[in-house]
Design brief:
By secondary structure, this protein is an alpha/beta fold. The chain has two domains: 66-285, Rossmann fold (3-Layer(aba) Sandwich), CATH 3.40.50.150; 312-411, Rossmann fold, CATH 3.40.50. It is 33% helix and 21% strand. Strands 6-5-4-7-8-11-10 form a seven-stranded mixed sheet. A six-stranded mixed sheet has the order 14-13-12-15-16-17. 45% of the residues are buried.
Length: 413
Amino acid sequence: MQGRGCRHCGGSIDLVLADLGEMPVANDYVDPIGAPEADAIVGLKVVVCADCRLAQTIDHKDASDLFRDDYAYFSSTSQEWLAHASDYVDQMVDRFSLKPGTRHVELASNDGYLLQYSIAHGLSAVGVEPCNSVADVAIAKGIDTQVAFFGREYALDMIKRGGQADLITANNVFAHVPDVNDFATGIYELLKPDAVATIEVQHLLRLMERLQFDTIYHEHFSYYSLFAAMRVFASAGLRVFDVEELTTHGGSLRYFVCRADAAHVTSPAVQALLDEELAYGIDRDETYADWAIRVRALRDEFRGMLKGLKSKGKSIAAYGAPAKGTTLLNYCGIGRDIIDFTVDRAVSKQGRMIPGVRIPIRSPSALDKAQPDYVVILPWNLREEIVSDTSLWAAHPHTQFISAIPWPAIFAA
């Protein structure tokens, strides 16, 4: 667990970005059979380092407590995310002229959602995934998946067993790593001298611009600006030579990283984005303090909207049971008295309940029977995919939708 000081540089972390109070662990879905009367809750607070500006949680949970054998998030449940993964592999093969047999390592490879496309290109693919629940699915697909937490020591062991990597992929894992220095150093060791690592992670600048406070949860130990990420990578001997903005997760960055002395030329996009962050105030204390005030205003507006609809006799359900939904509903105090149930395509979540608020999670077919007046879209990053799915809404075309982020709103399909 984190001591009193920045997880990267040891600097002061007294500046508060968000204090969301006591909160259940986002992906600890509750089995109604044998469930305790109340779920365990721990503080959820994000602070910012005065020196390197890394935003980070004050930790009350170890990674091994969060990423367990029963971890219930399966990447392959989203067609949009599968398309993103397929496009990524195509782009990397083309941009870096990757040949069959090229060693491709993915960190936090989940259920093989991405490496299946790597294998289709003839690459030699290896996944590293700490959770058995999803790793087992990948292994059943024939994908070489090693069940472990990644860091420098594990990287050195991988090199002994299979050599260094030509391409390393780390999608949506960098934020989940408590020891960022060990993880970055592991990437340095595993890379061949002129090889490339790509790291996709939610962009702190877009999170703040769009008030995406619901993407704060215990599994995310850090929240990265380019400003902070460059410092983390540099301390491990790595250099960001390009950066690409993505629409995933409400606004993410794909860092292209190499060893500091590698031949890759640094793109002007790096300085351009850094200048944008500085113009926003990513290096100023008041930027973070003002943001916290705006989050509280959003909470009050969203809660007032739903309670107003309920007082008029309207029925409200929700779609999805993402981690962000746990944060949103618990912070806003929205429980079963307002939202009757939510639905999710992931069979691993069906029959369970969202932690804290205890809203039941059902299969999508429950929507046809209930015919709710309103449906709250909890995975707002997949809003267009969900709302445009006629198989879900054809039987009840008058249902309206609600989204809380970036500001509470009601909309039709």
